[in-house]
Amino acid sequence: MESSIEGLLYYYQTGGYVMPPLVLCALLLWYALGYRIAAVKRGSRRSVRNLIERYAAGKWQRPSGIVQDAVVRGMAIRARRLPYLRRHLDDAFSDYRARLTHFSLLARIIVASAPLLGLLGTVAGMIETFDSLTDSALFAQSGGIAGGISQALITTQLGLAIAIPGLLVSRVIDRRQQRIEMDLLQIKDILCSQPGMLTNNIHKAES
Question: CA nearest 162: which of 54, 15, 9?
Answer without folding.
Answer: 15
